[in-house]
Hints:
By secondary structure, this protein is mainly alpha-helical. 65% of the residues lie in helices and 0% in strands.
Amino acid sequence: MFASLSFAAVAAICLVGGYLLGSIPFGVIATRLGGAGDLRQIGSGNIGATNVLRTGRRDLALITLVGDGGKGAAAVGLAWWLFRSADAEAIAGGAAFVGHLFPVWLGFKGGKGVATFLGTMIAIAWPAGLAAGATWIVMALIFRFSSLSALTAVALTPLYVFLFNQTPEAKLWLAAFMAVLVFIRHHENIRRLLKGDEPRIGQRPAPAAADLGHNGGPPLA
């Protein structure tokens, strides 16, 4: 559609458009409109579907999951529709992912990116994306840790892209780029997993020591 544009112009459009699309905080919007309060003040404070589930509202968690995954897929789809370029797809998908992690509307304090990762990968390399989603489901059913399921799925996704021969290489680089960022965003979860303190799916995280009184009771006034 815009074949006459230079690569720099295409990249700029994909970066800005993908970022703005990815920065839409569906979890915050869904919980507020659904009467569940400010998601950032609930559970872990994360804006993703796992934390929405801690409100007890599965419908809002589903809306968040679909929205967060859908915005990554939409960024990829729009880039392909406009430019018919795998590189443009990868740039837009990566920008949407970064937008979810660091949304300008929330002071650059966003989610951990798992749903957006999966939505982006399903759109740009659907066999690898579906394999990653299946990995998450299997790990979640066995171990009941959302973070462990996510880390396993994203770590294997570049391998899935390679095994399914999902060319061009931009798709492999995108999977690797997003996987690294997911691991960085999950550094606290990794620490809790190693210590055995990570909450399971649907379980509220334990309060931090700083939030407790001197003997483990409620905080002192």
